[in-house]
Design a protein that fits this description.
Helix content is 80%, strand content 0%. By secondary structure, it is mostly helical. Helix 1 (3-21) packs across helix 3 (46-66) and helix 2 (23-43) runs antiparallel to helix 3 (46-66). The structure holds magnesium ion (MG). Magnesium ion is lined by residues 33, 36, 52, 55. Magnesium ion binds at residues 33, 36, 52, 55.
């Protein structure tokens, strides 16, 4: 599945609720999920970390939808940015 398809699924499924919540409170949810991912990693619980990676990805796409940002475009620009190449 490509990023645009996934972002559209998230938009179709959650946008109304996310939009009513607003960007600030949605950003707080995103931060909470990042915290849960960090806790799962710290505890060595790989299965839980896997679930939290999913949560973080979906909330990231939700934020992008609320900001009207196309994440496929963001990824392409990122990968073509010479400043993002690994340092030697
Ligand atoms: Mg979670």
């Amino acid at each position: 599945m490509d990023i645009s398809t996934l972002q559209k699924i998230v938009r179709d499924r959650y946008f109304k609720t996310d939009n009513e919540r607003g960007i600030y409170h949605t950003a707080l949810w995103f931060h909470e999920e990042v915290g849960e991912l960090s806790a799962a990693i710290a505890s060595g619980d790989i299965q839980n970390a896997k679930e939290e990676l999913g949560d973080v990805l979906m909330w990231l796409l939700t934020l992008a939808n609320l900001l009207s940002v196309d994440m496929e475009e963001v990824v392409k620009e990122y990968l073509n940015n010479p400043r993002k190449l690994p340092s030697k």
